[in-house]
Fold:
Amino acid sequence: MIDYLRGFRVGVLRRGGNAVERSLAAISDETGPRSGPAQVDAGPFWPVDRWVHALYALGLTAAAAVALAIHWIDPPAAVRGVLALVASTVFMLAGYTLVRTPTRRGRALRRYLTDPRDRTEFEAAAANADRIRLTWPALERLGDPADPTPTLERALWDLAQALAERGELRTADRDLRASVGDPIGAGSLFSTVTDRQAEIVQRLTDVDAEVRRRAGQLRRLAGLCQDFLDQRAAQTRARLRVTAAEALLGSLRSRPEPDLVSRTEVVLAAYRELADEYG
Amino acid sequence: MKGSAVRVVEPMPEPVLLLRSGSRPARVAGTATAATHRCLWGALAAAVAWPVLSACGVAHPQAAAVAVGLLTVLPWLGPALGVLLTAVLAALVPQPYAPLLGLAAAALVTLAAAPAQHLPGRLGPLSIPAASAAAVLGGVAWGVLGALIALVVASLAARTRRTRRTRSAR
Structure:
């Protein structure tokens, strides 16, 4: 049971595997078919970029080899069209199999989070966690942070569990509503069904609030990290402009000290709040 | 956990930035979007290298152009190697002005492919299977130019699909 859950957790949190597998997972996360609305921000996802271009080049090399081979055979136009269709279909099918096989994340996510809305919400939270992870190294020289990865993973996993529970409660609520509409009479069975439905709705409200709270924490911290990056970039631009202006005027005025420390403190305070919750 | 030493488990890459035209702010793009733009860059280099190499009299210009495009897709030295291959192939042609031809071919490929580093955001992300399938379909039908057109159309369709889904969700 523990191994089963650990496998699910690895699948859901897309951890583990080598660089190629993580690269494939990252590509699949951005481009793969989603049954729900695609509201997830575009990456960047886990650190995998190094391999992605090489993988694309590999796929294009195979495509070019097939296309050149068909050109070399030089069949009639109709046969060429058929061959092109067959080759592209084979590329699609084989490629998607290869992309899905290493990580199995999509399957794990679909099995664990059955409701497409829950998967969309989890993807948004995962994107926020990615943003925090990518921003965090910029803070290490300025504050006293810890490695955020375990805390973020724990937060994401807890969110996934809450989302899974919400999905099950929604299904139960839907089934009970259907039973209320069925001709079951007005006896004790009807009152039992309505009672259970009321309990389910109450529990659903609680879980919904918990999901919003957990997702909101990640979103807030990611926003603060983004604000920190924006401020740092703006200050860098300002310093460059001041340097250019000083060079132009030929003066030796002292440069203003950056106000990054206060911004860092805000980000770290939000992180500590998250770590206290899940650490 | 609080107060412990800083420990970065994996080196973090810089976010992939897609620069819009002019001085508009850069937009953070996903890995697949960046890689798709890179594939389009390579296809454009191949589409330019094909007529250039053909005009220079290089044997099998289409295959050579495909090699130039594939090299351009690779990170780091890939584009430079693509331009170098174009120059070498054109310079090896047995003609009196072969070195000049090689230089001109390399310059043309560089000039044509350089703007492709800043592709518009309307070109959306394609997965590796989708990019390969589009390249095969277009490449078999109309050669290198067909592959470029197919990749552009598929990329635009991917972005349109995502935009439509997002709007319908709102």
Notes: Residues 1-6, 34-48 of chain A have pLDDT under 50 and may be disordered. The radius of gyration of chain A is 26 Å.
